[in-house]
Design brief:
alpha/beta, 6-stranded antiparallel β-sheet, 22 strands, globular, binds manganese (II) ion
Length: about 475
């Protein structure tokens, strides 16, 4: 298959659309640097676009109507947006699923310590990272501290102009003879990814004994003052260190975007944007979609999709069951059967990023089966590692349907594998949903420097992803 560079055939109006999407995506990235922040963005967006909470809607017990918009979220970290279609739910959903968690550095439950007059956050990294990439960068702290009284204190430090940042230090080159001889995996060890947060001791008052850990004491007093939190409150906190700063145009030609967390927010956002387009059509008197459309935003993909908010949880299935209970068919058939039919008849785009071919590391890729940035959304039939182990190997007939739909809407797509056979591998949420017997294929944006603190994508691929998801929602 010949790959085509999207930029070569964009019209003036395409180029305007590319810029419009790219700037609203960058705003999404700046407001959503954690899964919780992404879910609150999605909740605000849903409210603005006429979505009702599924929990409110089920209390009504009246049948679903085509064109209805419903949102369900779980623990503030995963979300499902439904636009109800004309067909009964037993015919399945058109499901675009992306994840909104990204690799980062999490604070431990007892994080604050002092050593030689410096205070640190003790950490445990989250997801697959090259640890050496995370030193000497400005880091911001995002997250929540849940208090015993039931209140939740949101925290963001290091993003506003004038905010302080924190960070992880590295050894000076002058003393690095031993460090430089280590394998890259050992240059910076997991336990050394601790974040320097303070160096000033509390003031010593006359007659008082000096605090045992004066720097820690002082920095904790600042946190108490600003957020009303005590040291013990870290026990019930979820605080994440992420690269501080905003997404920005990348390249002298502004053709790319550099940002933290493209994986996988660059697929999550186009799904939202595609829904926005569908709703605009609906609001202008257009028809509801044939099939019910779902945009799903998963948490915990980077650590195996586990837990109550990962794709392995029953959250998605539970929302489907609630919807099916409101569906007409459930009046005639056993509810369990309607749910099972709905799940098995569902068509899924597992919207997750792929690797972009990098000429500087050409030997890691197979030239005829790699994705190039700017050459469109990439369809990945299988992921996995070492002989496709753990892959969802998408069905050929389903791929043929996808090709037909994308070609009909002139969406520029390419196909790829992550990299050379037996060099490594990776997974997505595809295999989890496929377990229902659903048709699933991975389909996302190629990324350069994936999982690095600052990743790069092409604006053109962002646009083609949006167009692909829209074509899928409308025509699958
Ligand atoms: Mn991903
Ligand atoms: Mn990833």
């Amino acid at each position: 298959m010949a790959q085509k560079n999207s930029w070569e055939f964009y019209t003036e109006s395409d180029l305007q659309e590319v810029e419009k999407l790219s700037s609203s995506y960058q705003d999404f990235l700046n407001r959503g640097k954690t899964e919780r922040e992404c879910v609150s963005y999605i909740e605000d967006w849903a409210e603005k676009h006429g979505f009702r909470k599924l929990s409110d809607r089920i209390a009504e017990r009246s049948p679903l109507k085509a064109g209805e918009r419903l949102i369900a979220t779980h623990m503030g970290k995963t979300a499902a947006l439904y636009i109800i279609g004309k067909n009964a739910l037993e015919h399945g959903l058109n499901y675009v699923g992306a994840h909104i968690d990204s690799p980062r550095i999490d604070l431990k439950q007892n994080p604050v310590y002092e050593d030689m007059g410096m205070a640190y956050f003790d950490t445990h990294y989250y997801g697959g990272v090259k640890k050496y990439q995370w030193v000497t960068l400005p880091l911001a702290i995002h997250g929540v501290v849940a208090l015993k009284d039931g209140s939740v204190v949101p925290v963001v430090i290091g993003e506003e102009e004038g905010d302080p940042v924190v960070g992880i230090t590295d050894l000076l080159i002058h003393l690095s003879q031993e460090q430089m001889e280590k394998a890259a995996a050992k240059v910076i060890e997991g336990e050394s990814l601790d974040i320097l947060i303070a160096s000033r001791p509390s003031a010593k008052k006359d007659g008082e004994e000096a605090a045992k850990e004066p720097v820690k004491t002082y920095v904790l007093s600042l946190l108490k003052e600003k957020y009303g939190i005590e040291e013990d409150d870290f026990i019930s906190a979820e605080l994440e260190a992420v690269p501080a700063g905003k997404a920005r145009d990348f390249g002298l030609d502004r053709s790319m975007i550099m940002a933290y967390g493209h994986d996988d927010r660059c697929c999550a956002y186009p799904a939202l944007y595609a829904m926005e387009q569908m709703l605009a059509d609906l609001d202008q008197g257009g028809d509801a979609p044939e099939k019910t459309c779902l945009a799903f935003f998963a948490d915990k993909e980077e650590i195996g999709s586990v837990g109550a908010t990962g794709s392995h949880s029953h959250f998605f299935e539970n929302t489907v069951a609630e919807l099916c209970a409101l569906d007409d068919a459930a009046q005639k058939l056993p509810l369990e059967l309607v749910i099972r039919r709905c799940l098995q008849n569902t068509c899924v785009l597992s919207a997750d990023v792929s690797s972009g071919f990098d000429p500087l590391y050409a030997s890691a890729f197979a030239k005829n089966n790699c994705a190039r940035i700017g050459y469109g959304i990439s369809i990945v039939k299988y992921t996995g590692a070492r002989g496709k182990s753990s892959a969802n190997d998408a069905n050929a007939e389903y791929l043929a349907q996808i090709r037909r739909i994308l070609d009909a809407e002139h969406v520029n797509f390419q196909t790829s594998e992550l990299g050379r056979v037996d060099l490594g591998g990776g997974g997505t949420i595809a295999y989890i949903i496929a377990a229902y017997g659903a048709q699933v294929v991975d389909c996302g944006i190629p990324v350069l420097s994936m999982h690095a603190p600052w990743e790069v994508i092409s604006k053109a691929d962002l646009y083609e992803a949006y167009r692909a998801y829209l074509a899928f929602y409308k025509n699958m």
